[in-house]
Amino acid sequence: MTDSTAHPPHPGAGTLRDYARGRLPSPVRETVEPHLDGCSHCRVQLAALVDHAPLDAVWRRLDLAIDAPVPGWLERQLLALRIPDHVARLMAATPALRASWLCGTVLTLVLAVLTARLAEPADTPVVYLTVAPLLPLTGVATSFGRRWDPAHEMGLVAAVCSFRLVLLRAAVVLGSCVLLTAVTSLALPRLGPVAFAWLLPSVVVTALSVLLLTRLAAPIAAVVAGSGWLAGVALTEHSEALFSAGGQSALAGLLAATVGALLLRRADFDTEKGIHP
Amino acid sequence: MTPSTTPPTPPTPPLTPFGDTVAGGDTAAVRNVTVRYRGTVALNSVSLTLSEGVTGLLGPNGAGKTTLLRTLATALVPDSGDVAVLGRNPGSPGRRQEIRRNLGYLPQSPGFHRHFTAFEFVDYLAILKEITDRRRRHDEVRRVLAAVGLRDERGKRLKALSGGMRQRVALAAALVGDPRVLILDEPTVGLDPEQRLRFRELIADLGVGRTVLLSTHQTEDVAALCRRVVVLDRGEVRYDATPERLSGVAEGRVWFSTERDPRAAAGWRTGRGTYRNIGSPPEGARLAEPSLEDGYLLLLGSVPEQREAA
């Protein structure tokens, strides 16, 4: 065995650079690799020549895959709707979105539909149309304030704009209720468009309850908004009037006024005196 | 009464006027701030100016410490008086947003979404801080979790972590965005000695280059960490000086005796069987080295004596 076999010559800097870039042709590469295996000096030289950016990128992707939050079922659905990941995360963290709340909402809807099918006038199922707008209020009542949101205080100060968070949560609650109610409305096919006359009242009472958060604790705000709705239904000479075209127009006007008031008072949501603890 | 028992008059904040912005290097200040809760005065015309370093806030329960902290954290709007943080008035929504981007707040009892992991919780609060870029946000979450020593616990659910670890998660969340002002409300309550030491190290490091206001009942923490101590009592600032000067309040007023001394305002039997007394010592008493706690107790317990002297 010759001396050169025992200690093969080190590859030149150009050869190592080509190897680091993956440009070294095959026959030469096969001679360089065994040398690198046995020569720490050349491995050090090679490490200095390697472009670390792609390696870092791979590492970051791996790191992200290992410890980054794994989206839950709801968050995945929101992401599928092309909602940005940070918005989806805030929406999915809405305190009301618990299985118990969803089950309660579904159960109430099923009972309301059964009542409409079995015991109410065929043209305007007043009980069903009255109950459906109340459902988002239970979600509003259990989504805001120290009692329901465990990170309320940290969130209040961390949030650069609390109003946005309030709106997102209210939208999640309302959206969930609208979706569930719309599905159950399909069980009342003979009603036609009237079966969806709960939609506008749902938006109105939700907006009203959010507006009341600036003065009242969330459960009380929900009770007040809900009582207002029930009083409106009861006081209407013929209860169906609220679900007629005229009634819906009046509700649309009330909604516009509520949204206007919300925009005027949006800064109130940023402090404890604004959003009731 | 020795001169050292008289608490120094709280300094008048030099910030004038408190407009939309305030010039000067002071990082947070309140002037003549009054806060009432259902008719009870929680803060009574409090004035205080904070600057870089750790300031300790001592006071008995109900003294108004948390109210003051919430006011400075922009969570609470005072009934009267002025607030300025980082030269901005939090009364204006735009300025309040600017403050919050540079403010970290650890509340007295930070709540948690217990099903969240440590990473998810801090990530959630980072989103609220409007760090919307996912990669930048996750890098920041990793940075703050590493800063509080929770790099390896980041994937664990909060309900599986100890109380001390959860407190560190909350501190990590307060550190998101590298805030210039950090407000900590009793961060070491309920922690064991080792965890408290760990927290002490963290807070000492955080006090370099930023303003930290630390509310606590632990006088040892104040003695170890703070270059300034403020004592709040019944909604008013009773003392505002260095910890050493607060210890000095008890200079010559702590003594040992073999039996309980009826002249002592407070006294207890030590493990060695002797009594450690605080108050007005008798002639020839064996005096003891006063601690910050002695000064604090004497300060709060000697109100009538000082009023008479005044």
From TrEMBL, chain A:
It comes from the Bacteria. Keywords: Membrane, Transcription, Transcription regulation, Transmembrane, Transmembrane helix. This is Integral membrane protein. Residues 1-20 are annotated as: Disordered. InterPro entries: Anti_sigma_zinc_sf. The chain crosses the membrane at residues 99-119, 125-145, 166-188, 194-213, 220-236, 242-264. It comes from Streptomyces boncukensis.
